[in-house]
User: Fold this.
Amino acid sequence: MGERRGAAVRVAAIVLGAGACYCLWKLVAGGRRRQRAAAQAARSPPSDNLPALAHTLDADGLQKLLHLLQATDDPLIQEQALITLSNSAAFSVNQDIIRNLDGLSIIGGMLSDCAPKMKEKVLNALNNLSMNIKNQEVIQVYIAEVCRNVESAPLNSDLQLAGLRLLTNMSVTSDYHHKMIDSIPCFLRLLSAGTERTQIQVLKVLVNLSANTAITRHLLRAEVPSLLSLFDSCMNRDILLRTLTFAANVKRKANDGKGSTIQDQYSKDSIFVILCRDSTPFAQKLAALLHHPDTEVKEQVVRILTQ
Assistant:
């Protein structure tokens, strides 16, 4: 094990240069105090912990960094490598390079057998890499696993949010919506139980899904007893605006007749009954929101009322 760790650190020296190598060496050999500090830093979002050399890595450097990720089982070295890869992927040219080096499979393959803390770093890296249509074609094979991680992660955790951010990017187009259908009940539970930060991220996914006619019937059947509570003038503006956008999309698809609208198949807590059939409470909520001070909120209310 000592020889393997030493080899990994020597590779890191080649990849990241003397300064980054010193950081990795300290992570391995610096004792408990340094490890705690490194762990604290690793919890910061990549944008707040950008390694200075991330943007200077060329194809050879990225390849060596990927080899390092495979060669070591030291979690602190793996975390630092993932953070560096994640920040490198913020540059579009590197997104293609990492894909061509099979980096997507190397990084994505870690989802199945690493600790929750490491999964968060993996998801952050995949999130940056997913800002690329060709990369999405590879990353889509991990959607089901990402959904499982979102569902099993502690509520409002960084791991859960990292998964939701990746699903947001992967749902911008309708190509992979079908892979998220089974997770719609999970998304709606998070919408009811999550903090504002979680609710906003869930709504980004739901708004993307609601724009797809093929997903309409799955959304209409879903149960959300607390949905009406989100249509309130005291609600966080981002949450309110995204909830109104979601409702407008769903109602439009239902009214188009392209979604299934056989009323008997919907429960009383379903989105269909709340937004489309038992419309009086919802209409009252919308009427109150017509007096909201935000112009965009009022525009979305009018959009719903005029459908």
About this structure: Residues 13-52 have pLDDT under 50 and may be disordered. Residues 1-141 form a domain with the Leucine-rich Repeat Variant fold (CATH 1.25.10). Residues 2-29 form the longest helix (28 residues). The chain has two domains: 1-141, 171-307.
